[in-house]
Amino acid sequence: MTPRRLLASSQDIALFDDAATRRIEQRAAAGRPEHALMARAGVGLLRLARAIAPHARSAWIAAGPGNNGGDGLVLATWLQRAGMAVGVTLVGHAGRTLPPDAAWALAEARAAGVTLREDLPDAATRARIDLGIDALLGFGQKRAPEGALADAIAALNGLRGPVMSVDAPTGLSTATGAKLGDAVVRATHTLALLTAKPGLFTGAGREACGEIWFDDLDVHPADDEPASAWLTGAGTAAKRLPRRGQVANKGTFGDVHVAGGAAGMVGASLLAAHAASLAGAGRVLVHAHSSDKGGVLPVDVRHPELMLRPVAELQQAIRDNRKATVVAGCGGGDDVASELPGGLSNAHRLVLDADALNAIARDAGLRAQLRARGARGLPTILTPHPLEAARLLASTAAEVQADRLAAARRLAADTGAVVVLKGSGTLVATPHGRVAVNPSGDARLATAGTGDVLAGWIAGLWSAQPATDAVVDLAFDVARAAAWIHGRACDFTAGARLPLVAGELAAHMARAAHSLAD
Ligand SMILES: NC(=O)C1=CN([C@@H]2O[C@H](COP(=O)(O)OP(=O)(O)OC[C@H]3O[C@@H](n4cnc5c(N)ncnc54)[C@H](O)[C@@H]3O)[C@@H](O)[C@H]2O)[C@@H](O)CC1
Ligand SMILES: Nc1ncnc2c1ncn2[C@@H]1O[C@H](COP(=O)(O)OP(=O)(O)O)[C@@H](O)[C@H]1O
Ligand SMILES: [K+]
């Protein structure tokens, strides 16, 4: 297989953590001639280097003391043979015995006449480099790069041309997507080798990697090596688009009740409600708390299909309609807490966002009720951003971000809910530990209210799905489909730099969904 881009995949992509990657590597190496895997990695690297810098005449390779450096040295040999001016800086080699593959790669580079040195190129030389290669450290990094490694990272980050990271940007945890310290390579391209690793796609991963490419080195993990997580493909989002059969009526697609919208935050509940209606719900009813405090909205004139109802009607409505989907907390303020005991007991399908999550974090009774829902087979989807997740986990946002996958898994296991941990590389986790990483979207979504739109879209999409025995699987699928479409909306905006205003987001999401259906 030649290197391919992963973010636009139609299939889900299996992601493997460091321990699984190590096992896959060992099995693959055992069945091949010596150094074959590293030689093959060099071919993939050469192909991508040619593709990203077809006219490059000079390359600088920073090669570390392990097999990642070995991969870089194989590439150096190929580039040298192709007539390019190649310089290699060996970083951290002094006093270390190289692993056998890397020692072989170093000998090959030497034999090919590659210039090998231990110091960094000076500023004048760096200014002439057309392509930088980060082959310092690869998967399994656990410590912050320091000293000569940190200096080499700074030199790579100062280059004017493209920088390709071999397997992973140095300084990034491939397991978690967290920065290991201050020094992190900021690549324009990263070629994941052998396996795609979760840390490339979440947390600081996307920013450090640039464009993410993948070469499996013609190794196909055995069936006994399950994926650690999955990168969501377009096909998963397409599969959950509601089917609108010829004889369907609005009842087929269910009611969504939106509870939230305290004074000054009514917009949040309307954003969620509009998204729910565009995503597929049959009817959407908004129970905004501010309505009960004199700020009654007679109609949302931009979206007159929404039914604006008093909060006092919510509990009766969800007792009467045992199939209703409830989304609570968007713009909720403190008032939403009073609706939670009833919502947790009676809502058929429940999405909890923002202040509903904060209320649950404060109240052990509500937490117990949330767990009890799961045990009764009533599904819940939580949509925390990292700080909301931290409150629920009695932790800090920094700790959540330090290992997003573990935090999402723990929160799902603790609550019995499907958890959507938002942010760059949104994660969706089930109570049994399945995790999906969302590849779509970027910081154009980092504006107020976009999370309300996501929560509403999840509710609307869920409402339109037929009942199934596999309630958790359905909730997982709906959440990752909605996250995918939410991010994909970025591709339907005019520019790359200006934000996606929340009021316009749902319409862009509808366009993204239509493009899947076509
Ligand atoms: N053996 C093979 O044939 C293959 C190797 N591959 C390459 O091998 C890489 C993994 O190689 P290694 O396991 O040798 O690991 P690395 O090359 O990532 O690390 C090398 C050494 O540096 C040490 N180290 C890690 N972080 C450090 C830090 N912050 N400061 C100082 N030292 C640090 C590690 O303990 C390790 O001993 C992959 O990322 C990939 O590039 C792949 O190409 C697949 C094939
Ligand atoms: N850098 C980013 N890349 C991708 N998605 C992002 C990024 N920043 C924010 N988002 C998305 O935007 C939404 C913001 O939601 P949230 O933080 O709840 O904001 P709000 O409460 O104002 O709606 C989430 O879905 C989040 O995943
Ligand atoms: K690297």
From TrEMBL:
GO BP, one annotated term: metabolite repair
Asked if DNA-binding is a keyword of the record, the answer is no
Q: What is its EC number?
A: 4.2.1.136, 5.1.99.6
* Cofactor binding summary note: Binds 1 potassium ion per subunit.
Start and end residues of each YjeF C-terminal domain? 233-516
Ligand binding (AMP): 422-426, 451
Q: Which domain of life is it from?
A: Bacteria
Keywords from UniProt, A to Z, are:
ATP-binding, Isomerase, Lyase, Metal-binding, Multifunctional enzyme, NAD, NADP, Nucleotide-binding, Potassium
Cofactor entry: K(+); Mg(2+)
| Sample GO molecular function, one term | NAD(P)HX epimerase activity
Catalytic function, reaction form: (6S)-NADHX + ADP = AMP + phosphate + NADH + H(+); (6R)-NADPHX = (6S)-NADPHX; (6R)-NADHX = (6S)-NADHX; (6S)-NADPHX + ADP = AMP + phosphate + NADPH + H(+)
Record's PROSITE patterns?
Answer: YJEF_C_2, YJEF_C_3, YJEF_N
Q: Does the keyword Oxidoreductase apply?
A: no
Coiled-coil segments: none
Q: Which residues bind (6S)-NADPHX?
A: 67-71, 138-144, 167, 268, 331, 385, 452
Which residues belong to any copy of the YjeF N-terminal domain? 21-225
Per UniProt, K(+) binds at 68, 134, 170
Q: Which PANTHER family match?
A: ATP-DEPENDENT (S)-NAD(P)H-HYDRATE DEHYDRATASE, ATP-DEPENDENT (S)-NAD(P)H-HYDRATE DEHYDRATASE FAMILY MEMBER
| Binding partners and assembly | Homotetramer.
Family from the record = In the N-terminal section; belongs to the NnrE/AIBP family. Belongs to the NnrD/CARKD family.
Q: State the protein's purpose.
A: Catalyzes the epimerization of the S- and R-forms of NAD(P)HX, a damaged form of NAD(P)H that is a result of enzymatic or heat-dependent hydration. This is a prerequisite for the S-specific NAD(P)H-hydrate dehydratase to allow the repair of both epimers of NAD(P)HX. Bifunctional enzyme that catalyzes the epimerization of the S- and R-forms of NAD(P)HX and the dehydration of the S-form of NAD(P)HX at the expense of ADP, which is converted to AMP. This allows the repair of both epimers of NAD(P)HX, a damaged form of NAD(P)H that is a result of enzymatic or heat-dependent hydration.
Q: Which protein is depicted?
A: Bifunctional NAD(P)H-hydrate repair enzyme
**Origin organism lineage:** Bacteria, Pseudomonadati, Pseudomonadota, Betaproteobacteria, Burkholderiales
This protein's encoding gene: nnrE
